[in-house]
């Protein structure tokens, strides 16, 4: 499977990649986007099976990326790994079709719990 990791922090993208590997999902094709617009473009062009997105990114926020993908008919599995978590954010994410919401800091065990049903 192809997994798109979208976060404006290169270090955080590396942490997500490392945690995916620790959770046993390192054999998937991992691609990265450095902002929201790039995430939208890559989700459209590269057709990943899963998008793991930060909420706050320049250009386009993660929720804007999700909403624009859904508006374009793209049903890729999409969820958030973010440092912010309010009930309003979770509600907006779920209403827009988010498959998961992981709050930083996270663990390999949390990734396994969330991604095992998605990635098998």
Describe the structure.
The chain has 120 residues and is an alpha/beta fold. Helices cover 45% and strands 20% of the residues. It has a five-stranded parallel beta sheet with strand order 2-1-3-4-5, sandwiched between helices. Helix 2 (36-45) packs parallel to helix 3 (62-71).
Straight-line N-to-C gap: 10 Å
Order of helices and strands: EHEHEHEHEH
User: Unreliable runs, pLDDT <50, ≥5 residues?
Assistant: none
- Give the overall shape: globular
The biggest beta sheet is recorded as:
5 strands, parallel
Beta percentage is 15-25%
Strand order of the largest sheet: 2-1-3-4-5
Overall mean confidence score, pLDDT: 96
**Helix tally?**
5
The computed structural class is: alpha/beta
Total count of strands: 5
Helix percent band: 40-55%
Core attributes:
single chain, 120 residues, alpha/beta, five-stranded parallel sheet, 45% helix, globular
Blueprint (SSEs and pairs):
Blueprint: E1 2-6, H1 10-22, E2 29-33, H2 36-45, E3 50-53, H3 62-71, E4 77-82, H4 87-95, E5 100-103, H5 108-119
Parallel strand pairs: 1-2, 1-3, 3-4, 4-5
Helix pairs in contact: 2-3
Domain Response regulatory: 2-119
Keywords: Phosphoprotein
Organism: Actinoplanes ianthinogenes
